Protein backbone atom coordinates (compact mmCIF):
# COMPACT_ATOMS: atom_id res chain seq x y z
CA UNK A 1 0.00 0.00 0.00
CA UNK A 2 1.31 3.42 -0.82
CA UNK A 3 0.74 6.39 1.38
CA UNK A 4 2.78 9.02 -0.45
CA UNK A 5 1.69 12.62 -0.39
CA UNK A 6 2.07 13.54 -4.07
CA UNK A 7 -0.29 16.23 -5.29
CA UNK A 8 -3.45 14.53 -6.45
CA UNK A 9 -6.34 15.35 -8.70
CA UNK A 10 -9.40 17.09 -7.28
CA UNK A 11 -11.92 14.81 -5.58
CA UNK A 12 -14.22 13.03 -7.98
CA UNK A 13 -17.75 12.36 -6.81
CA UNK A 14 -19.50 9.40 -8.38
CA UNK A 15 -23.07 8.26 -7.79
CA UNK A 16 -23.79 4.57 -8.48
CA UNK A 17 -27.40 4.05 -9.57
CA UNK A 18 -29.44 1.13 -10.78
CA UNK A 19 -32.67 -0.82 -10.45
CA UNK A 20 -33.37 -3.37 -7.77
CA UNK A 21 -31.10 -6.43 -7.44
CA UNK A 22 -28.78 -5.55 -10.29
CA UNK A 23 -25.67 -6.01 -8.15
CA UNK A 24 -24.87 -2.51 -6.96
CA UNK A 25 -24.40 -3.35 -3.27
CA UNK A 26 -26.42 -3.48 -0.11
CA UNK A 27 -29.38 -1.75 1.48
CA UNK A 28 -29.48 1.98 2.09
CA UNK A 29 -27.54 4.84 0.59
CA UNK A 30 -23.85 4.71 1.48
CA UNK A 31 -20.99 7.10 0.96
CA UNK A 32 -17.51 5.67 0.47
CA UNK A 33 -14.30 7.66 0.39
CA UNK A 34 -11.03 6.37 -0.95
CA UNK A 35 -8.03 7.34 -3.03
CA UNK A 36 -7.29 5.35 -6.17
CA UNK A 37 -3.79 5.25 -7.59
CA UNK A 38 -4.14 5.83 -11.34
CA UNK A 39 -1.03 6.14 -13.53
CA UNK A 40 0.93 7.00 -10.41
CA UNK A 41 -1.32 9.89 -9.45
CA UNK A 42 -3.62 9.68 -6.42
CA UNK A 43 -7.26 10.21 -7.32
CA UNK A 44 -9.48 10.98 -4.32
CA UNK A 45 -12.95 9.55 -4.80
CA UNK A 46 -16.28 9.90 -3.04
CA UNK A 47 -18.70 7.21 -4.14
CA UNK A 48 -22.40 7.42 -3.34
CA UNK A 49 -23.96 4.01 -3.55
CA UNK A 50 -27.70 4.42 -3.91
CA UNK A 51 -30.18 1.69 -3.14
CA UNK A 52 -33.15 1.03 -5.38
CA UNK A 53 -35.28 0.90 -2.24
CA UNK A 54 -34.20 4.41 -1.20
CA UNK A 55 -36.27 6.82 -3.23
CA UNK A 56 -35.43 9.82 -1.12
CA UNK A 57 -32.84 12.40 -2.10
CA UNK A 58 -32.52 11.17 -5.68
CA UNK A 59 -32.43 14.80 -6.79
CA UNK A 60 -29.65 15.46 -4.30
CA UNK A 61 -27.68 12.54 -5.77
CA UNK A 62 -28.08 13.98 -9.25
CA UNK A 63 -26.75 17.36 -8.21
CA UNK A 64 -24.03 16.08 -5.86
CA UNK A 65 -22.11 13.90 -8.29
CA UNK A 66 -19.57 14.81 -10.97
CA UNK A 67 -20.12 11.48 -12.71
CA UNK A 68 -22.50 8.54 -12.66
CA UNK A 69 -22.32 4.76 -12.90
CA UNK A 70 -25.65 3.33 -14.05
CA UNK A 71 -25.93 -0.42 -13.48
CA UNK A 72 -28.45 -2.85 -14.96
CA UNK A 73 -28.62 -6.63 -15.05
CA UNK A 74 -28.43 -8.32 -18.45
CA UNK A 75 -31.01 -10.81 -17.13
CA UNK A 76 -33.63 -8.15 -16.32
CA UNK A 77 -35.17 -6.10 -19.10
CA UNK A 78 -36.86 -3.88 -16.53
CA UNK A 79 -33.50 -2.93 -15.05
CA UNK A 80 -32.25 -1.98 -18.51
CA UNK A 81 -35.33 0.15 -19.11
CA UNK A 82 -34.71 1.80 -15.75
CA UNK A 83 -31.12 2.45 -16.80
CA UNK A 84 -32.23 3.86 -20.16
CA UNK A 85 -34.66 6.31 -18.59
CA UNK A 86 -32.07 7.30 -15.99
CA UNK A 87 -29.50 8.02 -18.69
CA UNK A 88 -32.04 10.10 -20.56
CA UNK A 89 -32.84 12.02 -17.39
CA UNK A 90 -29.14 12.58 -16.73
CA UNK A 91 -28.67 13.89 -20.25
CA UNK A 92 -31.33 16.51 -19.54
CA UNK A 93 -30.50 17.42 -15.96
CA UNK A 94 -26.73 16.90 -15.89
CA UNK A 95 -25.76 17.21 -19.55
CA UNK A 96 -22.04 17.67 -18.89
CA UNK A 97 -21.64 14.80 -16.42
CA UNK A 98 -19.91 11.64 -17.64
CA UNK A 99 -21.89 8.40 -17.40
CA UNK A 100 -20.70 4.79 -17.33
CA UNK A 101 -23.35 2.20 -18.26
CA UNK A 102 -22.56 -1.20 -16.73
CA UNK A 103 -24.42 -4.36 -17.77
CA UNK A 104 -23.85 -6.69 -14.84
CA UNK A 105 -24.29 -10.48 -14.47
CA UNK A 106 -22.74 -11.39 -17.82
CA UNK A 107 -21.97 -14.80 -16.30
CA UNK A 108 -25.71 -15.55 -16.63
CA UNK A 109 -25.69 -15.50 -20.44
CA UNK A 110 -28.24 -18.33 -20.62
CA UNK A 111 -30.72 -16.04 -18.82
CA UNK A 112 -29.93 -13.01 -20.97
CA UNK A 113 -32.87 -10.64 -21.43
CA UNK A 114 -30.95 -7.62 -22.75
CA UNK A 115 -28.87 -7.92 -25.91
CA UNK A 116 -25.44 -6.30 -25.81
CA UNK A 117 -26.22 -4.39 -28.98
CA UNK A 118 -29.27 -2.75 -27.34
CA UNK A 119 -27.08 -1.41 -24.58
CA UNK A 120 -24.23 -0.35 -26.86
CA UNK A 121 -26.75 1.48 -29.06
CA UNK A 122 -28.09 3.29 -26.01
CA UNK A 123 -24.55 4.14 -24.92
CA UNK A 124 -23.71 5.46 -28.38
CA UNK A 125 -26.84 7.61 -28.47
CA UNK A 126 -25.92 9.32 -25.20
CA UNK A 127 -22.13 9.17 -25.61
CA UNK A 128 -21.69 7.17 -22.43
CA UNK A 129 -19.06 4.55 -21.67
CA UNK A 130 -20.41 1.01 -21.73
CA UNK A 131 -19.20 -2.33 -20.42
CA UNK A 132 -20.80 -5.70 -19.89
CA UNK A 133 -19.28 -7.62 -17.03
CA UNK A 134 -19.88 -9.91 -14.14
CA UNK A 135 -18.99 -8.43 -10.80
CA UNK A 136 -19.27 -11.94 -9.40
CA UNK A 137 -16.76 -13.35 -11.85
CA UNK A 138 -14.24 -10.95 -13.35
CA UNK A 139 -12.58 -8.53 -11.01
CA UNK A 140 -10.21 -7.36 -13.75
CA UNK A 141 -13.16 -6.33 -15.92
CA UNK A 142 -14.62 -4.29 -13.08
CA UNK A 143 -11.34 -2.59 -12.30
CA UNK A 144 -10.59 -1.96 -16.00
CA UNK A 145 -14.03 -0.47 -16.68
CA UNK A 146 -13.78 1.87 -13.71
CA UNK A 147 -10.16 2.78 -14.38
CA UNK A 148 -10.66 3.86 -17.96
CA UNK A 149 -13.83 5.73 -17.03
CA UNK A 150 -12.14 7.61 -14.18
CA UNK A 151 -9.05 8.35 -16.25
CA UNK A 152 -11.18 9.89 -18.98
CA UNK A 153 -13.05 12.07 -16.51
CA UNK A 154 -9.79 13.20 -14.98
CA UNK A 155 -8.41 14.08 -18.37
CA UNK A 156 -11.57 15.99 -19.32
CA UNK A 157 -11.40 17.91 -16.06
CA UNK A 158 -7.77 18.71 -16.66
CA UNK A 159 -8.51 20.07 -20.13
CA UNK A 160 -11.51 22.05 -18.91
CA UNK A 161 -9.35 23.78 -16.31
CA UNK A 162 -10.60 22.21 -13.10
CA UNK A 163 -7.76 22.87 -10.66
CA UNK A 164 -5.93 20.06 -9.01
CA UNK A 165 -6.25 19.90 -5.27
CA UNK A 166 -3.91 18.44 -2.73
CA UNK A 167 -4.83 15.36 -0.85
CA UNK A 168 -3.88 15.28 2.79
CA UNK A 169 -0.63 13.43 3.38
CA UNK A 170 -2.36 11.80 6.30
CA UNK A 171 -3.79 8.90 4.32
CA UNK A 172 -4.71 6.30 6.89
CA UNK A 173 -4.93 2.60 6.27
CA UNK A 174 -8.20 0.79 6.30
CA UNK A 175 -10.16 -1.70 4.30
CA UNK A 176 -11.96 -0.53 1.18
CA UNK A 177 -13.33 -3.96 0.39
CA UNK A 178 -16.82 -2.63 0.91
CA UNK A 179 -16.28 0.08 -1.66
CA UNK A 180 -15.14 -2.43 -4.23
CA UNK A 181 -17.64 -4.96 -2.96
CA UNK A 182 -20.41 -2.56 -3.87
CA UNK A 183 -19.84 -3.51 -7.49
CA UNK A 184 -19.16 -7.16 -6.83
CA UNK A 185 -22.51 -8.24 -5.45
CA UNK A 186 -21.15 -10.64 -2.90
CA UNK A 187 -23.23 -11.77 0.05
CA UNK A 188 -21.91 -10.01 3.10
CA UNK A 189 -23.00 -7.67 5.85
CA UNK A 190 -24.29 -4.38 4.47
CA UNK A 191 -21.58 -1.82 3.73
CA UNK A 192 -20.96 0.93 6.21
CA UNK A 193 -19.89 4.47 5.39
CA UNK A 194 -16.14 4.79 5.08
CA UNK A 195 -14.52 7.97 6.24
CA UNK A 196 -10.86 7.10 5.99
CA UNK A 197 -8.58 7.13 3.00
CA UNK A 198 -6.32 4.61 1.38
CA UNK A 199 -4.21 4.64 -1.75
CA UNK A 200 -4.48 1.59 -3.97
CA UNK A 201 -2.98 0.94 -7.36
CA UNK A 202 -4.66 -1.26 -9.96
CA UNK A 203 -2.90 -4.47 -8.99
CA UNK A 204 -3.72 -3.97 -5.34
CA UNK A 205 -7.35 -3.30 -6.15
CA UNK A 206 -7.62 -6.43 -8.29
CA UNK A 207 -6.21 -8.46 -5.41
CA UNK A 208 -8.63 -6.83 -3.04
CA UNK A 209 -11.59 -7.65 -5.27
CA UNK A 210 -10.44 -11.28 -5.43
CA UNK A 211 -10.11 -11.43 -1.66
CA UNK A 212 -13.45 -9.79 -1.03
CA UNK A 213 -15.14 -12.36 -3.27
CA UNK A 214 -13.69 -15.13 -1.16
CA UNK A 215 -15.13 -13.77 2.08
N1 LIG B 1 -24.78 -14.30 -11.11
C1 LIG B 1 -24.47 -13.08 -10.64
N2 LIG B 1 -25.10 -12.60 -9.56
C2 LIG B 1 -24.78 -11.38 -9.12
C3 LIG B 1 -23.80 -10.58 -9.77
N3 LIG B 1 -23.71 -9.40 -9.10
C4 LIG B 1 -24.60 -9.49 -8.09
N4 LIG B 1 -25.25 -10.66 -8.09
C5 LIG B 1 -26.30 -11.12 -7.18
O1 LIG B 1 -27.44 -10.31 -7.39
C6 LIG B 1 -28.16 -10.13 -6.18
C7 LIG B 1 -28.41 -8.66 -5.93
O2 LIG B 1 -27.17 -8.03 -5.65
P1 LIG B 1 -27.15 -6.69 -4.80
O3 LIG B 1 -25.73 -6.22 -4.79
O4 LIG B 1 -27.83 -6.86 -3.50
O5 LIG B 1 -28.05 -5.77 -5.73
P2 LIG B 1 -28.48 -4.22 -5.52
O6 LIG B 1 -28.46 -3.64 -6.87
O7 LIG B 1 -27.63 -3.55 -4.49
O8 LIG B 1 -29.96 -4.37 -5.00
P3 LIG B 1 -30.90 -3.30 -4.19
O9 LIG B 1 -30.52 -3.44 -2.74
O10 LIG B 1 -32.25 -3.81 -4.50
O11 LIG B 1 -30.62 -1.91 -4.72
C8 LIG B 1 -27.32 -10.79 -5.09
O12 LIG B 1 -27.86 -12.08 -4.87
C9 LIG B 1 -25.94 -10.89 -5.72
O13 LIG B 1 -25.19 -11.98 -5.22
C10 LIG B 1 -23.13 -11.12 -10.92
O14 LIG B 1 -22.28 -10.52 -11.57
N5 LIG B 1 -23.53 -12.37 -11.32
Task: Please explain how this structure is put together.
With 215 residues, this protein is α/β, with parallel strands linked by helices. The protein is built from six helices and seven strands; from the N terminus they run βββαβαβαβααβα. A seven-stranded mixed β-sheet has the order 6-5-4-1-3-2-7. Strand 2 and strand 3 form a beta hairpin. Helix 4 packs antiparallel against helix 6. The chain is globular, with a radius of gyration of 16 Å. Bound molecules: guanosine-5'-triphosphate (GTP). Guanosine-5'-triphosphate binds next to loops. This is small monomeric GTPase.
In brief, what are we looking at here?
This protein is α/β, with parallel strands linked by helices and 215 residues long. 34% of the residues lie in helices and 21% in strands. Guanosine-5'-triphosphate (GTP) binds at residues 18, 20-27, 51-53, 104-105, 107-108, 134-136, 185, 187.
Q: Which helices and strands occur, and which strands form pairs?
A:
Blueprint: E1 12-18, E2 30-38, E3 41-49, H1 58-64, E4 67-73, H2 77-93, E5 98-104, H3 116-126, E6 129-132, H4 139-159, H5 177-181, E7 199-200, H6 202-214
Parallel strand pairs: 1-3, 1-4, 2-7, 4-5, 5-6
Antiparallel strand pairs: 2-3
Helix pairs in contact: 4-6
The structure holds guanosine-5'-triphosphate.
Guanosine-5'-triphosphate binds at residues 18, 20-27, 51-53, 104-105, 107-108, 134-136, 185, 187.
